[in-house]
Amino acid sequence: MHFDLVDLSLFRHVVEAGSITHGANRANLALAAASHRIRTMEASLGASLLVRARLGVTPTPAGRTLLAHARQILGNVERLQGDLAAFAGGAAGQIRVLSNTNALTEFLPEVLSAYLARHPGVSVDIEERLSDEIVGLVAEGAADLGLVAGTVETGSLETYPFRRDRFVLVVAAGHPLAARPSVPFAEVLGHDLVGLDRASALTRFLAAKAGRSGQPLRLRVQLRGFDAVCRLVECGVGLGIVPETTARRAARTMAIAPVALDDPWAVRDLTICVRDLAALPPFAQDFVADLRLPGASADLADVVAGSAPKICDETRA
C-alpha cells in the first residue's frame, strides 16, 4: 500500500462529509482528482473503502479501519508541526471545532478573534452541529474539540465549562405575549415563527422538540442570523427564539420584548468537550484555555499535567 498524507486527509474529509464532492472541496482538490485518488487507494489495498449510494458515501469495514488510522496519523502530524513550530518562533497548525448554534453565534467569535490575533500561524475549522452529534464526532476523533449544551451526555470525554445562556422568546413590542412574564414552548407553536435556516442546529433542535409535542414548527421565514430574526420579529412577521444575550442586545435598538420560556431545556450551560486534552497540540490546548469560563475551577495546566480531575462534573445539567 502506498498512501500519502494527502490521500489520508482526503479520505477523512470524504467520510466526515458523507460525500466525495464535499470531501474534495474540504481537501481543496478537484472532484476528478479526488475520485482518482480514492480509486487508486482501493486498488492498492485490494478492497473497497466506500459504499457509494445516491445520497452519498459511507465507509466499508476496511474504510472504517483506514479512517481510524488516518485520524491518528494526521493527528500525530499536526502535533509534530505544532511542536516543531516553537523552534521557528510561533505555533502553526489547524484546530477542528464543532459547535452548537448558541455557542457559535453568541460566544465563540470574540474568543476566536483574540486567539487568532495571538496565533497567526493557526487556522480554525468550525462546523455547526447538534450537541449530541458533536459528542459522537469528538469521541471518534473527527474534531479536536466540541462546544455543546451542558445537558448532553458526554460519556468519557473530558469536559470544561464554557458559558451559560438561555433561549428566550422574542415578540414585537405590541404583541399580546409581550406582557407575559413567561410562556411554554407548546404555546409558542401556535404562532408563526421567524427562525434560522432549516439546516441550522437550533432549528433542527426546535423541530425535534415540536415533534415530540405533536405540533409542527411553523417557520414562516428562515434567515442566517439571530439579529435578522429579531429585525423581522420587530416588523411583526412572527415570533422568534434566540439566545437571551442576543435578545437583550437587540432590545436596546429594536421594538421587541424578550419573554422567558418555561421549558427546562431553555437554560443553556455550554460545555467544552475533548477526548484527551493532554494529547492535543500546545496551540490547541491554548485555545481550550481561552475558551474556558473565566474563574472556572481547576487550573488548565493542572488538568494537562494530570493533577486535577479530567471530567468537570459541575458542567453536566
Low-confidence stretches: 297-317
Name the shape in a single word. Answer: globular
Name the helicity range: 40-55%
Q: What is the residue-averaged pLDDT?
A: 87
Series of secondary-structure elements, N-terminal to C-terminal? HHHEEHEHEHEEEHEHEHEHEEHH
Number of helices: 12
β-sheet strand percentage: 15-25%
N-to-C CA distance: 48 Å
Q: Count the beta strands.
A: 12
Alpha-carbon Rg, integer: 22 Å
Structural class: alpha/beta
Q: What's the main sheet like?
A: 8 strands, mixed
Describe this structure in words.
- This protein is of the alpha/beta class.
- Helix content is 43%, strand content 22%.
- The protein has helices at 5-17, 20-26, 31-45, 61-85, 101-118, 131-140, 185-188, 201-212, 226-234, 244-251, 282-291, 300-305; strands at residues 50-53, 56-59, 93-99, 122-128, 145-149, 158-172, 182-183, 193-196, 219-223, 240-243, 256-261, 267-274.
- Strands 3, 4, 5, 6, 7, 10, 11 and 12 form an eight-stranded mixed beta sheet that branches. A two-stranded antiparallel ribbon has the order 1-2. A two-stranded parallel ribbon has the order 8-9.
- Strand 8 (193-196), helix 8 and strand 9 (219-223) form a beta-alpha-beta unit.
- The longest helix is centred in the N-terminal third of the chain and has 25 residues, at 61-85.
- It is globular.
- 38% of the residues are buried.
